Amino acid sequence: MLIWKSQKFLKSIYTLLNMHYGLRCYNKDSEAIGWLYTYNNDTELVWTIKNLNWCRQWKTERGAKKNFERYNSRWQFISKGGYLKIEVMPDIPESAVLDELGENAVSTIGVTTKMFRSQDYMNQEQRTVAEDFTDMIETEYALCVQEMRKANNAIVMDVPTGLTKEDNRRLDYANREIDSINKYWQIRLGHLIEFIETQNPKFNKELAIKYLSSGGK
After folding, report:
1. Who wins on pLDDT, 26 or 114?
2. Pick from 20, 41, 96, 141: most CB atoms within 10 A?
3. Alpha helix locations (H) across 19-78?
4. Cα separation, 18 vs 211, whole angstroms
5. Are strands 21-26 and 83-88 parallel, antiparallel or unpaired?
């Protein structure tokens, strides 16, 4: 049976939202020694293997490439022949992400979230539409995740023994119908996540932690 597993989908979305590109530091012997971070107003370059949330990181490889040359040339000089490489960073522990966002980040979701940068220029009707949409985002996000998991749990994975060929066919049809509902919620959530990521990436990360992480609702 072809089953679309929503739990894998949720995990992949969470991974993508939290995936970042960083600059891996290599010495002159081509040995990886850590990840680049800077301090003192970006004037000092150092490396770390533990505090990854301190490191220079970008959401896209394109963003990392824009800044690569200026950091690489400085690192080559500092390391006496070493070099940097753009690589996908290891997962940053959820606790570190929350520290970066602030200890009240998740508990205050939806309270002061601003989604539309031009809201101050909107007329009253437009502002009402924007505010109503902002108010329903988290409810919609939670609903999509809830319904995806509900549909996923309804799919019969442990096929009873002793079923006839016809029974197996019927079970497969039933699973496919439930799977189509599952896919609907996946697509709906995917569009919402894409929209939030464009408008407010920080809010997107907060929602992912709250609803898509292993400890999410």
Report:
1. 26
2. 141
3. 61-78
4. 13
5. antiparallel
**C-alpha separations of 99 from 44, 89, 96, 102, 141 in Å:** 23, 18, 5, 5, 23
Which long-range contacts link 185-194 to residues 24+ away (Cβ below 8 Å)? 185/6, 185/144, 185/147, 185/148, 185/151, 186/4, 186/6, 186/9, 186/144, 186/148, 188/144, 189/13, 189/141, 189/144, 189/145, 189/148, 190/13, 192/137, 192/140, 192/141, 192/144, 193/13, 193/17, 193/141
Task: Give the three-state DSSP class for 81.
Answer: coil
For 130-152, write each residue's pLDDT tens digit: 989 998 999 999 999 899 888 88
User: pTM for the whole thing?
Assistant: 0.53
208 contacts: CB under 8 Å, gap ≥ 6: 13, 14, 17, 18
What residue spans define the domains of the chain?
6-15+100-211, 21-91
> Cα–Cα distances in Å, from 133 out to 141, 210, 212?
12, 20, 21
pLDDT tens column, 192-215: 988 888 888 888 888 888 888 754
